Amino acid sequence: MLYVILIAAALIFAIVLYDKPQMKLTFKEGEICSHAGQVDKSFLHRCKDIARKNPFNGTMKVYKSKEQYRVKFSKSVPNKTRHILRSALPGAKSHTHKR
Questions:
Q1: Domain, as residue range, for 52
Q2: Element (H, E) at 56
Q3: Mind telling me which InterPro entries this protein's record contains (predicted)?
């Protein structure tokens, strides 16, 4: 019985430590109501502009792994707005093909 409790405690501890985004933004009705982590000032300004133009509610978590950013959105963020926010990231690559 003790091993079940120890395994459960280890899983909870791992989940708490694993979900550490570099930055977390919370949007409410087209405004940023809270942000946490290392948020770049220019990125924050761009996110405010995007949220004013396309009002929505939801959260955005940005994880950094080596050279790339990985972004997770809540389900309430529209797909069009997700694309715009991804392209606003500081290290975002354009999807155009150069010849």
A1: 20-87
A2: none
A3: DUF3634
Over 90: is that where the pLDDT of 79 sits? Answer: yes
Is residue 27 assigned to a domain? yes
Element (H, E) at 86: helix 79-87
The answer to whether residue 15 is domain-embedded is no
- Rounded-to-integer distance, Cα 62 and Cα 25, Å: 9
DSSP secondary structure string, 13-28? HHHHHH---SEEEEEE
Helix axes 79-87, 41-53, angle to 10 degrees: 150
d(CA 12, CA 51): 34
Q: What is the pTM of this model?
A: 0.70
Is 5 within the bounds of a domain? no
Phi and psi dihedrals of 48, rounded to 5? -65, -40
Structural domain count of the chain: 1
